Predict the structure.
Amino acid sequence: MSLRRTLTRPLISDNPVTLQVLGICSALAVTTSMTTALTMSLALTTVLTASSGIISALRRQIPPQIRLILQITIIASLVIVTDLVLQAYAFAISQRLSIFVSLVVTNCLVLGRAEAFAMHNPVGVSMADGLGNGLGYSLILMAVAFVRELLGLGTLFGQPVLPGPDAGGWFQPLGFMLMAPSAFIVLGLLIWLIRSRWTAQVEENEYPLHVAEVRR
Amino acid sequence: MTELFLRAIFADNLVLSYFLGICTYLAISKRLETALGLAAAMIAVQTVTIPINQLILNGLLIEGAWGWLGLPDVDLSFLKLIAFIGVIAAVVQVLEMALDRYAPALYRALGIYLPLITVNCAILGGSLFMAERHYGFGESVVFGLGSGIGWGLAIALLAAIRERLRYADVPEGLRGLGITFVVTGLISMGFTAFATVTLP
Amino acid sequence: MAEPNPFAFWRRLLALPADSQGKTIAMAFAVSAVCAVLVSGASVLLSPRIDANLAAERQAKLDELIASMPALADILAESQADSMETIVVALDTGQPAPDVDGPVDMQALAADPATSRELTPEQDYAGIGRRPDYAQINVLKSAGRTELVILPIYGAGYQSVIEAYLALEGDLNTVAGLAITSQGETPGLGAKISEPAWQALWPGKQIADDSGEVVLSVVRGKAKTEYEIDGITGATRTGNAIGGMVRFWMGPSGYGPVLDALADGAL
């Protein structure tokens, strides 16, 4: 598979969040504002690309018995360094992201791609795969954050977009959008949207239903 | 303590309020039986790892922990991530061996998902919450038990509903993953109702 | 005897099959060592910047507090050369603690038994378990008289730790203002305590009644006296938590001795 395809497939047709069901935990928690979603996306994409590259470079040397713990050590070290860099250069945002940057360590996406791809492929294409999946993940995150911040606060990236009651406008912020359940529902509806257009992703019905004819 | 326990199960539910452990939550909730087995394993791991991590954090890692050795300024708390994961991996390994020995049927039923508990964000997240909220040892035990039960309760609920959804006429685009998310959102809404419940 | 050749050794090591015992141990050590160096190196390199960020953030919060309270800004403008004094005090005695350096992280002190005191359930209105021994307060004096005191307080909110600065006027009983600096309460409900509209309800309220007992509290619905603050609908628990924080920190287990020392002119 060409490098370009490796990069573009995870955007929609093999999206980590909406199809592979990986990396969801953080995808929901940080989407109350686009700024945090963007920071999380950048952090995860960086760690994913770097870890895929490193693990791929070491793939022939890693003993199978300690495979998991070695991968986790490498990923954890990258995450700690990323967290420290965030605290040093973007302190305010790092406070809001608190444990979710640390949770990138157990993010199934990073480990999942390491196991499924980086362990069996050369460095260049592994990093492309990491970057592609990171971008696919970021796409979903930004989409959900867009809806939640716009409807929940009337702002985008902290800048007021819809005139709220403070500014004497017509927009009543939908507080529900800032609470946990809305993330699930927005993501579910987003998946519906995606699968209505890209129908190849629709799941098969386990028990196909037949509509019986009504006899008069 | 009781309030902490109840909050950890209901209002502060790890999966429904903080989105932790969703990957496994979505993957294992197709059958109620497997879900219950995983829930039991999660409760066990969570109740054991959080207190152990609390001891390690306060005994070895925070600033001043090495004061007795004459090194009061040493602050190793940036290592807590790796330390917690190490403990979790070790505890899951021990649990695997114990289940293999004493409950082989459950061990076989859980299969691959037992070692996957190591990388379940809910387990690590629980320990990280304990660190952030500065819990004591007793509180860690209660929080571990409560958060494990909360997670188990959530996955059991979802599995029960998903078993019914198999016979429902769900719109094409929503089938499978989409409707699961919407249902989880509704369960999560239900759980926020517990937020204002207080004990007399 | 062949000379030890580091390159040959390295090549032999790499040539070992991945699941051999020697390779397993070597990889475990190598990865751990490299990761340890990387993480420790980053920590050492970046910690001065991170500490500076923490201090700057606290200072910014203080500046924000001063900017948000117009009464405060007026008092500052009126006073002459006297400026805001930062004092680290020992909470047990209310006296300054010159050998303790600021900035003081109260919650970190409270986590360490050596620098904190355990609270009994009857004393622990703020739900913090342990009370730190020191705090860093700001006092504005004009011609030797205390004009304003800014006290950092914190307590267990409904679902997070709430941190705030409480500013008192010279009589040490009238609230000059409240600024919430950190909270993780429910967005749209308890989190409204961070809104300027709610914090604007505080200036002018009285903390203790004539008998000296701390009675200021957040009530359900509208406040009727100067000892009450309007509650936030749907956020009773958060409101109670704030009330508990005020009751604890203004009481004998909190800043009580400090306020006495200020009244006596000892600070």
Observations:
- Helices of chain B lie at 2-9, 22-28, 32-61, 80-102, 104-110, 121-132, 137-165, 177-192.
- Chain B touches chain C at residues 7, 11-12, 58, 62-64, 67, 78-79, 82, 133-134, 136, 195-196, 198 (CB under 8 Å).
- Chain B is about 65% helix and 0% strand.
- The two ends of chain B are 14 Å apart (CA to CA).
